[in-house]
Specification:
Blueprint (H helix, E strand, L loop, with lengths): L1 E9 L4 E10 L57 E14 L5 E14 L17 H4 L1 E11 L4 E11 L23 E7 L6
Length: 198
């Protein structure tokens, strides 16, 4: 099941864009051969140019887990059965060189992914409403949008304001606000089109 709400509030030259998304999936019956999570092609992921932009694609969560991406006990991709996400973006014009509109944006992304079933997963990886405040990741950033009329090229840089699932090397920074050095805790994203359709 999934639910999504999107709202664009346009002003004379600027706009505010909001998006809220919630999704949950349950593996049952004949799909037990996939294990304790959803099949790979149905899993929820966080990070990337259209999601939690302060994290690389499949690099967020699950929950407040601390795992390496390489080596022994590693999880190269992060995925889950539950996703909650909220995005807000302020868009404004910057300049128009050679007739090409270049717009700016300031944004924040809040959310995470989790497993639904506890078997085989640590409590920090499983969705629990009582841990929601601790488990939510927060990123903030800014970007440029080059509007070529028929499509938009998007350059975003986002910073991890609050990271619930850092790598073991950064475990001491878990859930601390503005704990990363600016360029160590950030992520550049290149996208085509606006992140929430409009």
């Amino acid at each position: 099941m999934e639910a999504e709400y999107r709202k664009l509030i346009s002003y004379r030259k600027t706009a505010l864009a909001f998006r809220a998304f919630g999704g949950i999936g349950y593996n049952y019956g004949k799909y037990d051969q996939f294990g304790k999570t959803l099949p790979f092609f149905k899993q929820y992921v966080g990070g990337g140019p259209n999601s939690m932009r302060a994290w690389g694609l499949r690099r967020l969560g699950p929950g407040s887990s601390i795992k390496p991406f390489t080596g022994s006990g590693s999880t190269p991709d992060r995925y889950g059965d539950v996703q909650l996400e909220f995005n807000a973006e302020y868009r404004h014009p910057l300049f128009t060189p050679f007739g090409i509109k270049v717009n700016g944006a300031l944004f924040t992304d809040i959310g995470n992914i989790w497993f639904l079933k506890g078997q085989g997963h640590s409590p920090e990886e499983v969705f629990n409403i009582n841990r929601l405040g601790k488990d939510l990741a927060i990123g903030m950033g800014g970007g440029l949008r080059v509007d070529l009329n028929f499509f938009v090229i998007r350059f975003d840089y986002s910073y991890k304001v609050k990271d619930p699932s850092p790598t073991p090397d950064n475990a001491s920074l878990q859930n601390k606000w503005f704990a990363y050095r600016f360029f160590e805790g950030g992520q550049f994203q290149l996208g085509i089109g606006y992140p929430f359709i409009f």
